[in-house]
Amino acid sequence: MSDLRDAAMQSKAWPFEEARRVLKRYESGPPEKGHVLFETGYGPSGLPHIGTFGEVARTTMIRRAFEVISDIPTRLVCFSDDMDGMRKVPDNVPEPEALRDHLQKPLTDVPDPFGTHESFGHHNNARLRAFLDAFGFEYEFVSATDYYRSGQFDETLLRAAERYDALMEVMLKSLREERQQTYSIFLPIHPETGRVLYVPIKHVDAKDGTVTFDDEDGREWTLPVTGGNVKLQWKPDFGARWAALDVDFEMYGKDHSTNTPIYDRICEILGGRKPEHFTYELFLDEKGEKISKSKGNGLTIDEWLTYASTESLGYYMYQKPKTAKRLSWDVIPKAVDEYHQQLRAYADQDAEKRLANPVYHVHGHNVPASTMVVSFAMLLNLASVSGAEDKETLWGFIIRYAPDASPEANPDLDAAAGYAVRYYEDFVRPHKVFRAPDETEEAAMRDLAARLQAHDGPTDDETLQTIVFAVGKDHGFEPLRDWFKALYEVLLGASQGPRFGGFVALYGIDETVTLIERALNRELV
Asked: What is an example of a GO molecular function annotated in this UniProt entry (predicted)?
């Protein structure tokens, strides 16, 4: 076993911990199907959101970790539950009223409100795949509609008819008495209306593999359970999918955790082996509410990519998956800068520390070098004070600060400069609030301007930070952070900011002195 594999078998990074659990399933020998199957599920009832992406990203991290510790081939299936009936019309699509006549139809039979695909389900599936492809995930996309209608689920559905009573026993225990009276694991698709029917099943014929039921108009129908004529209720469908595909690992949100025993038992009744599972905490919007596809709250995939790179999003997904996290605009700058800090650290780390570094799990074995010689937070402040409307303006300052930098040699910095201008215009500028300094602050700022103007030594970050620090000490700021807080609020219109010496080095001494003078003249308030 290689040194890398040895280190991976001991690593406390959560993807390796999960990978070792999967490997333990096959300690007596490799799987008969010839590979380990990782699955992630997707409900295309609304536009894909970052939580959906996070599930695929995190599963990919575990898959990569597994491939380090084992030679067993792997597959990752992204399964779309696109045969679900549309229960309500999302409020974040064009002309939602036009979809009301299609309620309860499978999502792949609902017209696409965007007019780009053959159905709403196909549209949302395409949105998900486009992003996963852009990020470079290796996966196989599977449509529930295709599997039901092509017959690939037929064997499992016939077994469900044979073992109907046992499956119903599991489900009925989890339901309220009122719901028990009408519940069935099978949902027929009406032959005429095409709607998914939530109606009582009068008879299940295990021998013929059929179900008999009355529709809403009281007409009796008998349909085969095969060929896409029925689908399974979502909880039985979860476990049946595990059995049909022989899934080895699936993760899902905390809201599914109470159903895990149900999913497992359904899988076992249908002849499968329950997979390993991983429950992650849910993402929250800026109000602390759960992100919902139908509400469209929280950040979308496209919105994150408007202001930051895909890699920074992957980094954010790695962090503490069992802790609830907000997905709002203000998490982006921190994620970008932390991602590049970890990239810089990776270059000098040994194998053990590299396996624990988030960027290893974002990139696998191909971790790039960071060329971000200026932080994203600093770029935002530079955009603020310079009034930059394009990244070329920022590059004028960057090249003076780092003469060897260029858009060609520093592509991630070049991209970040463009992101910073957009982020500043959309989220920082509208919320900037400048204030006038008090007497103590004004005296200190006049002193700082004078010392900077008189300075004829090195203009690196540390030297300039020492000057700023000394001014705060000499003017009696206690604690000293109150001095820096005053600089941010008076000069930058924010309560937090960058390391100020670094800001002066980037923005320029003359420019900073002018900025201080404008603030003291009350031109910024």
From this structure: ATP binding
